[in-house]
Amino acid sequence: MKILLPIDGSICSNQTLEWAVQTFSPQNTQYHLLFVIPVLPDLNTVEFDIVEATALLRKARNYLERQHCTVASSDYALGDTVDQICRYAEDINADQIVLGSHGRTGLTKLLMGSTSTQVLEHSRRPVTIHHPIPTSEPSRDVSQSQEALKR
Hints:
single chain, Rossmann fold, 5-stranded parallel β-sheet, 47% helix
C-alpha cells in the first residue's frame, strides 16, 4: 500500500506519523513523505523554508526507518498546500492520503481554513484524517516519540 503522508513539523503532524506507524503494517506499506512550502508574494523565505523542509523530511524519514518502515520518497513541493498534496498523490498513484487535523473550529477555521477538509473534498484518492487527542501535557510515550522525531 502506498501512503502519502504530508508533514509540516507540527505536533499534530508528528502524532499522525506515529499513528500511521502503529496502524499500517510495515511489511505492506510504502510511505511517501511530502512537505509543502506555500509560496507567498513579497516574501522571500523560500530558501529558508527549503532548508527547514529538508530537515523535517530527514527526521521523519529517520523515524520511520527506525520503526522498520519503508520510505519510498521524501519530497518537498512549492505552491498551494491542497493542490500540491492532491497532485503528488496522483503522481505517485497513492492508495491513500493520511494527514492530521489540528481541530481548529470557529473563527480560526473560517480564517485559516482546514487543509485536511479541503484535501478530502478535492482529492480523487481515499483520505484518512487523523484527529490526535489534545492534551495539555504530552503523554510520556508521545514525549519520547516527539524527541525521537527531533533527532
